[in-house]
Amino acid sequence: MDAVPLIEITRRALAHSEEAADVVTEAWQAQALAEAVGVHLATSGPPEVRAQAGGLREASGRACGSLRGPGQRSDGARAARLTEMSDPLSALHELGDLLGEAGGALVRVAVDAEEEGLYWRCIEGIDAADECGDRVTAILRRLALRPRPFRRAPPMDETGAPLVQRDAEPVCEGAAPVCGDGPPMREEA
How high is the pLDDT of residue 170? Predict the structure, then answer.
C-alpha cells in the first residue's frame, strides 16, 4: 500500500482516539510509519537523502520501543503494509504533520496522566516525535536542493515560432530552457 493513504488512516485514527492507551498506540503507529518511510528512502530513495533517511529509521525505531506498551505486539503496525511511495514529497509532508499531531496528542495525555509510567512513555514519545519531525524536515530540505532536469524549448521554424510536436508541453514564444518548478530552496546553515 502507498505511504500517503497509510499516513491518512493513522491521522484519522489518532484524531478519533479518546482514551490515553489509544492515543499512545496511535503515536506508536505514527512512529512505525516513520520507521518504514525511513527504511524505504534509505534503500530506494535518492542517494542524497539515504543517510538522513537512515537516521529517521533509527530515531523512529527507538521511539517505537519507548512507546510500545506491555503486551503490545510489533506485528500490528499498519506500517507493515507499506509497499510503495508514489509521491515521496507528499508522503514526507504528511508524515511530518502526523508526527506533530502525535506529539500534541501525547502532551495532552501526559498532562492528565496519573500513572508515572504512562507519563514518562508520553514524554519519551513527545521527544521522539519532535526528533523524527526534524529529520523529516531535513530530508525535505535535501530533496528541495536536488538538481532538476532541464526541459528544452521546442525547435523553432524559420519564422521563429515553435514547431508543433505531439505530446509536447506548450512553451511560450522565445522561451529559453527552463529548469524544474522554480528556484531551489537553500539549506540553512
Answer: 47
Q: Is 151 helix (H, G, I), strand (E, B) or coil?
A: strand
* DSSP one-letter code for 175: P
Cα 156 from Cα 136, distance rounded (Å): 44
Q: Spell out the residues 6+ positions from residue 110 whose beta carbon is closer than 8 angstroms to its own.
A: 118, 119, 122, 123, 126
**Calpha distance 45→9 (Å, rounded):** 23
Question: Can you name the residues that pair with 84 across neighbouring β-strands?
Answer: 2
Convert 52-61 to b/e letters by CB count within 10 Å (16 or more is b).
Answer: bbbbbbebbb
Average pLDDT, consecutive stretches of 10 residues, N- to C-terminus, the chain (189 residues)? 95 95 92 93 90 90 72 69 91 96 96 92 92 94 76 70 59 40 42
Rounded Cα distance between 28 and 38, Å, is: 15
Distance of CA 175 to the CA centre of its chain: 35
Q: Which residues contact 140 (CB under 8 A, 6 or more apart)?
A: 89, 92, 93, 96
